[in-house]
Request: fold
Amino acid sequence: MTTTSKLFDSIRISSNRKKKVEPEVPQCQWEGCTKPGTHRAPAGRDHEGQYLHFCLEHVREYNKNFNYFTGLKDDEIAKFQKDALTGHRPTWKSGVNAAAAKPAADFSRIRSGSAAYQNRVNDPLHMFSQQSRAASAPRKLKTLEARAFMTLGLEANATSRDIKAKYKALVKLHHPDANGGDRSSEDRLREVLQAYNLLKNAGFC
Reply:
């Protein structure tokens, strides 16, 4: 049979390819609606990972009125929100687990049959005690910091409370509003402001 034959045109070759199966769209689960449920919505608390299927109109309505905490009391909601900060994982306050907080034994000093097994970690070089002394030692002031203390009329060992109290008193004293509009001490006020901001940025107050 040639390709020009009339019979050639009448031959139909059936394809072995399987037709692509389109996924079935569930019906909208809104009561009384027969439209396709093309949109998913969460089923709610205690049903994580499960979804309801609605049409566009009803999924909007469902989401507008959806409340994850429906049925919970206020204290239960507060507890849930607090636990959510840690991903609902258990936490412990520092020092609660006494067994974990005990210092480890100094195994490098263990001798068979001796009481050294019960020894705790010691500080033979006094490194930690030196650090604690250094932390309590007065901080050495830089030139600008020392000048700022002098501007405020304070000693170098003044506390944060002392610095703030002195600052408020000087501002009240030199501010034009407190002096009936007199601007003669504006330069002094500017010095006080600069000194206080310097000490604040340096961490003194």
